[in-house]
Specification:
Length: about 325
């Protein structure tokens, strides 16, 4: 049984991590990212398969404290406005179901920036400055963390565990937290872990690390779930076994592993045969699941109707 890295983790968080540990290699939990109140992705999956995902991903981008509304594109504003209120939706869904929550946070840069400033190209925010005491960047970083901590506390009060995945895809440079290298992102993650566990006591969080580079590994004491995001150039049936081996070689063999984001569904028949120990997958939102640009209705049905897949209400 894997124990949470936070020694004060709630019993619900401990139970969830133990559940993930038991599932990995014996089945896979179905997951779907959403970022709007209607959660049209869930409706589409239900229409096509008669099932719904066990795990739902919710987005926090609209809750970023430093959104530059005066210098934002229409696409940016649409994304922000559509995302507002999703935390309330997540809380209600988790309270009324036995589903699993995971959160993604496309964090608009704590200082400066324009448009979608979680992207490096839209901000000159230098994450290295966060690591230096007394800088404006460090002050802004902690300010934003405190705001988000306040928004997460209702989940703690309701005893709802969250698979918390901050600083995702830090193996790339497209987000400001990875722009200065994955070693910097590693330190940001450690700062957040310490602040959220020791100051805010968010003991309902399970800590998900999302990077496949060894130099970014925060260490076994900071991570509950290792994960990777995979977007293949074109569809091919796969259990993502090669990617699993690469991930554990760069991180740890002692942790539960997850496909935190995928463009294409894993092949459930291949998973059932190989037992590659992914605890869950989460398909990305909108066109990645709705319609057949990425995933065919046949493949969707094959996944959700398989006895190897864990779906909603299971």
């Amino acid at each position: 049984m894997q124990k949470p890295v936070n020694p004060h983790a709630t019993s619900a968080a401990k139970k969830l991590l133990n559940y993930l540990s038991e599932i990995a290699g014996n089945a896979i939990i179905t997951g779907q990212h959403t970022q709007t109140i209607p959660m049209e992705e869930i409706s589409y999956i239900d229409e096509q398969t008669g099932k719904t995902p066990k795990l739902r991903g919710f987005e926090l981008l609209a809750y970023s404290p430093n959104i530059n509304y005066n210098d934002a594109s229409e696409a940016c504003l649409t994304e922000v406005y559509e995302n507002r209120g999703t935390l309330e939706t997540a809380l209600r869904w988790a309270t009324e179901s036995n589903g699993i929550l995971t959160f993604s946070f496309h964090w608009f840069s704590p200082l400066g920036g324009r448009d979608k400033s979680f992207y490096t190209e839209h901000t000159d925010f230098d994450a290295r400055q966060i690591l230096i005491d007394g800088t404006p960047e460090r002050e802004a970083f902690y300010h934003d963390m405190d705001v988000i901590a306040g928004l997460l506390k209702p989940f703690l009060e309701k005893d709802i565990p969250i698979l918390w995945r901050p600083f995702h895809e830090s193996d790339g440079t497209w987000f400001w937290w990875g722009a200065q290298g994955t070693a910097v992102a590693r330190e940001l993650y450690r700062l957040m872990f310490e602040h959220y566990t020791q100051v805010h006591h968010l003991d309902n969080l399970l800590w998900v690390w999302n990077c496949r580079l060894a130099e970014g590994w925060p260490g076994d004491d900071y991570v509950d779930v290792i994960s990777v995001d995979i977007y293949l150039d074109k569809y091919m049936p796969t259990d993502y076994h090669k990617e699993y081996e690469e991930l554990i070689s760069a991180t740890s063999e002692k942790k539960v592993a997850a496909l935190a984001e995928v463009g294409y569904l894993p092949d459930i028949d291949m998973l059932k045969k190989s037992h590659t120990p992914w605890a869950y997958f989460m398909t990305w939102s909108k066109e990645f699941i709705i319609g057949e640009q990425y995933n065919s209705a046949d493949n969707l049905r094959k996944m959700y109707q398989s006895d190897y897949a864990i779906v909603g209400s299971d």
